[in-house]
Write a structure and sequence with these properties.
With 126 residues, this protein is mainly beta. 0% of the residues lie in helices and 48% in strands. It is built from no helices and eleven strands.
Length: 126
């Protein structure tokens, strides 16, 4: 079983940038498709971005497309989320998640991911 730990959250002004990282332990990260989800207070957890095992395929929510970039370094067992031009509506707890088998619409559903980190808070002030 893989353990996931996120870092890199914090407080930033609108228009600023943050880089989130998710480090895996226990199993080799290359075995897993990886995703980032977020949850704002009073809202459901929502999909942000995902990346295939090799990094060859990436998926983004429309709300973050062209602002966020997901990447991975399997040699370092790390998945990153570069967030640029942040907006107050990006404020949420961001979670890293992994799963062995994803295809089609499963990439976008939190219920399809078996492994989760504890989350890191991102706050964007206006």
């Amino acid at each position: 079983q893989v353990q996931l730990v996120e870092s890199g959250g914090g407080l930033v002004q609108a228009g600023g940038s943050l880089r989130l990282s998710c480090v895996a332990s226990g199993r080799t990260l290359s075995n897993y498709n990886m995703g980032w989800f977020r949850q704002a207070p009073g809202k459901e957890r929502e999909f942000v971005a995902a990346i295939s095992r090799s990094g060859g395929n990436t998926y983004y929510a429309d709300s973050v497309k062209d602002r966020f970039t997901i990447s991975r370094d399997n040699a370092k067992n790390t998945v990153n989320l570069q967030m640029n031009n942040l907006k107050p509506e990006d404020t949420a707890i961001y979670y890293c998640a992994g799963d062995n088998f994803l295809y089609g619409t499963r990439w976008y559903r939190s219920s399809e991911y078996d492994y989760w980190g504890q989350g890191t808070q991102v706050t964007v002030s206006s």
